[in-house]
Design brief:
The chain is of the alpha+beta class. It is built from 17 helices and 11 strands. It binds zinc ion. One of its GO terms (molecular function) is zinc ion binding. Keywords: Endonuclease, Hydrolase, Nuclease. This is HNH endonuclease.
Length: about 400
Amino acid sequence: MKTILKTEITVKNICEGFVYNELEGKGLFGLSGKLTIQPEYQRNYIYASDGGKKEMAVIESVLKGYPIGLIYFNKVNEDKLEVLDGQQRITSVGRFVTDKFAIKDENGMEQYFGGMAKDKKDKILETKLLIYECAGTESQIKEWFKTINIAGVPLVPQELLNAIYSGPFVTLGKEEFSNSQNANIQKWSAYIKGSANRQAFFERALDWVSKGNIDDYMSSHRFDKNINELKKYFNSVIDWVSIVFTDVESEMCGLEWGRLYETYHKNAYDPVEISAQVRKLLGDYVVKDRRGVFEFILDDSVNTKLLNVRVFDDPTKKVIYAKQTKTAQTKGKSNCPLCSIGHDANKSKIWGFSEMDADHVAAWSKGGKSDIKNCQMLCKTHNRAKGNR
Ligand SMILES: [Zn+2]
């Protein structure tokens, strides 16, 4: 079987002679009749459902110059092609340029293709698509589909990006980050989840250096002959983590180390002190979110929300609620101690049980325990303002 990558076919070419069948809900033909968009075995057009969000997203991607992914054609004979993969995307552009639906412009106004400025129209029509033309028997094509996993497990996004931006940069990146022979992979696995050959490490490296804009980054570095910046940034993050946290804990794997590095790497930390804190918190049963321990420590050990600290149980809360409410009623004050010392209408308000939350009188982070002696009920507003400390 032969596959050829076509990079010069434009939206305009594809939409030449595009026919959309309203009755059957199918995009039928394109490429001046040469292309059958929806062979019988394909599922129906689904991008128009759910308010058309998906078909609008396709057009918005095209307008922004983002790639809409690889498309696969099956070459039946010299004059006949069928869409193997990509019919939803092709039907979306076909329907748009034939004014079947509108997108929203910057001001939220509906905009049909027919009413667009010429430069925008041209931008859409001149967009080139990435198309693999495959020629072979049906069984060969099915076999090949299986190999590249399209039919079964879909390509992970990074695999698709690697295909779209293939070139020297991707080649070097894969050599470094998806090479199981690289001895560093094991070290990196302490911090990064996923498998090297499914591009988890390459993806993470790109995600960190690009601050989440992998697409843009790959597009602008596509023809670079080196990956120095990528490697340097990735190693800075890994070095920083492994110096600050000297012990490798299983809870570290898959944390947002890129973001943590950006936020905290300029602060000074004492690794010995940190190591002791980590061990203490990971051993404390009140800490429900053990993965939050690392950022909690980096962030000066104040934001207990990161730890999801186990709070007081219901019986305890009800006892305290009853006690506080009884005292408050005899004094004519609010049963929320903080409301009662205020100056607004709430100073004598008696809150219902469900309107209040339990609070540690002595903050948990300062050693306050989660037992009844350290419990008070606050109205939800005051509890939130106190920040669950
Ligand atoms: Zn209150």
